[in-house]
Known about the structure:
Blueprint: H1 2-18, H2 23-45, E1 59-66, E2 73-79, H3 82-100, E3 106-119, H4 120-128, E4 138-140, E5 148-149, H5 151-156, E6 160-161, E7 166-167, H6 169-178, E8 190-201, E9 207-209, H7 227-243, E10 254-256, E11 261-262, H8 268-284, H9 288-303, E12 305-307, E13 313-317, E14 322-324, H10 325-342, H11 348-360, E15 362-363, E16 368-369, E17 372-374, E18 379-381, H12 387-403, H13 406-421, H14 430-442, H15 447-458, H16 461-466, H17 473-490, H18 500-513, H19 521-524, H20 530-533, E19 546-547, H21 548-563, H22 565-571
Antiparallel strand pairs: 1-2, 1-3, 3-8, 4-5, 4-8, 6-7, 8-9, 10-11, 10-19, 12-13, 13-14, 14-17, 15-16, 17-18
Amino acid sequence: MRARLAAALLALLTALLAGCGRPEARGEGAFRQKADLLWEEVRADWELRDEAPAGEAGCVVFFSVCDGSRRADVRSGSGETLEAAWSAAVRETEAFLREDGLFPRWVKADVVCASETAGADRLARELTQSRDAFFHRGLAFDGAFGTALLEAELNGAKIYDYENGRVNLNYLNSYLKRAGRETLEALPETYTLFLCRAWFCGEDGAVHALIPDGPDGGRRRVEVIDRACVEELLIDASAFLADMVKEDGSFVYGFYPRFDNELEGCNIVRHAGAIWSLLCRYRMAPDEALAEKIERAIDYMLTQVRYDEAGRAYLYEAKSDEIKLGGCGIAVVAMTEYMDVFRDGRYREVCTALGEGILTMLDQSSGEYYHVLNGDFSRKEAYRTVYYDGEATFALCRLYGLTGEERWLDAARSAADRFIAADYTRYRDHWVAYSMNELTRYVEDEPAYYAFALENARKNLEEIRCRDTASHTYLELLMAAFEVYDRMADAGMAAESFDLDALLQAIYARADRMLSGYFYPECAMYMANPQRILGTFMVRHEGYRVRIDDVQHNIGGYYLFWKNYDRLTAYGLRSAPADPRPAP
């Protein structure tokens, strides 16, 4: 493998040097070298199941080329054989590169492997029954594939309209016009749906086979998810999140990357959570520049803290004139994390004051929280989201760890008792999992707390393991439960009837599925500004949304996986899923 990679890099360098006289020649040379590397893999891997997988078009090959600064340009070719179609697609792409001057930093090859005709009613049914951006079929608007788009193009440019079950003609023509292709006056009555096998070649010359279909469709196969694999994800995503810290310490809230639209405003609860995840990254590898950004973000958060007449503190959300229980809780978590990482007690007083504010929102006799206050501290909304309960309880446990004062632990016990009595396992809530993991660090004489912490995972294992979306908070929940189990094992405590192997399988399954929410270049290249969101996390079925809390929760789950990896493998974590997907 190393020799092959070295040869690929040498070939790319040779191409660049050979074409150093003309920019367009450099582009053509780099493309040809990547195309040759791709062809080597395609030819070795390809099994043609049909002599004409694209129907009357025979064989069809697409090349997507991207320099990282703009949406990928796609060209195609057809022929009676795969070799003929490949050569035609190469010629089309080289002609485009000569005219445009684009340097192909990334090249992706798609080979049609199956196709079928479908009317508009069939397409409507397929789209409305799929999650947004989860339909992995390309679309040809004529039998000869004269106008045909990959699923990555259709989903990346929002041409598939899932809500209404149709092709958005306006978006389609806008896309075709930008690509210098003929637009359509009307949509046809019959389409050709097609599936592709795909391979991607990046800057390093390595070729990755992509998963063609299903929940993971469109991204590379990762054979082993281990500590090194996860560390790379964490470093890249944390760098993205750190770059989102502005000069005043606030965060850029996020993007809708299909059209490079920045999300307006922010959410102070998610701001606090983002700080916490950056501190997890700092634990992995201390970094002075990162520390400065963390402190700047905390300083901004502190400008949003309000004190009542009794000196109790609350985290204030200016845009809604609200005080949210969860915000107070996560602010405490973030600042106690900072003090532990840096061995610096600078935020002790404000954390204690925020804890006093949380206590005003807790009925300790029942364990119930009040969720939202107005900016003037008057009551506004008794309940908003279950997340607030776990966030506040987590904070109370952290305050006990900070001060050793029993009142914080007593309050946390009260909330935990309610979690058990009201069966909070039904919520599959990661914050409840975090809070129970923290509580059981300090309470060793309450078997019910340990049992509940494990039950919160056990009861939901099948749903979590099989969820088709990345659902990033699920790995956090599972890893928090694993830490509880691990401490119980070290202490010689019995975890009766708990299926550890099922937990480990679910952990690996989630770590694998979450890769589909990561912007590998083969996915980022179909967004409007690929470089901006490369190497971070998104929510595909929410318009590929990238938001600071989306990134935070992915970092949180993968960080715990990274941190506990040796323990996981000691217990028998497999280096590959127990039921690997069959090759297509």
